[in-house]
Amino acid sequence: MSNLGYNLDSKDKFIRALAERAGYTYKDTEHFWDCFTDLIEDVVAMDGCIRIRRFGELYLSHIPARTGYDGIRKEHIEIGPSKKLHFKFSDRYRQIVRKMGKMNRGF
């Protein structure tokens, strides 16, 4: 990335960096990104998962109903079932992070 730096902390910065790297226009890249995020929303809404080899997996887990404790009221409460969204990076990316951690510790 030439002049964008390493903090892609907004959709605009991310799209600009992706467009520059891919050689596409900002408008085309924004359209791709909007379609990509719409697809993710559709898959998640249908309780599906997205698995991309050498990148990662986006999936839902179902958390059953359970009994919890309300520390303020000092009583047990019933918590209904819920869903939790997860993203697990592939081994490839986890290894990159491990290597970076070792470099930062001076190994």
Q: In whole angstroms, how far apart are the ends? A: 28 Å
Number of helices: 3
Rounded radius of gyration (Å): 20 Å
Mean pLDDT score: 90
- Helix/strand structural class: alpha+beta
How large is the share of residues in beta strands? Answer: 25-35%
Q: Say which CATH homologous superfamily of the largest domain is assigned.
A: IHF-like DNA-binding proteins
Task: Please give the largest β-sheet.
Answer: 3 strands, antiparallel
Which second-level CATH architecture of the largest domain applies?
A: Irregular
Characterize the overall form: extended
CATH topology of the largest domain: HU Protein, Chain A
pLDDT < 50 stretches: none
Give the topology string: H per helix, E per strand: HHEEEEEH
CATH class of the largest domain: Few Secondary Structures
- For the largest sheet, list the strands in their spatial order: 1-2-5
Total domain count: 2
Number of strands: 5
Into which percent range does the helicity of residues fall?
Answer: 40-55%
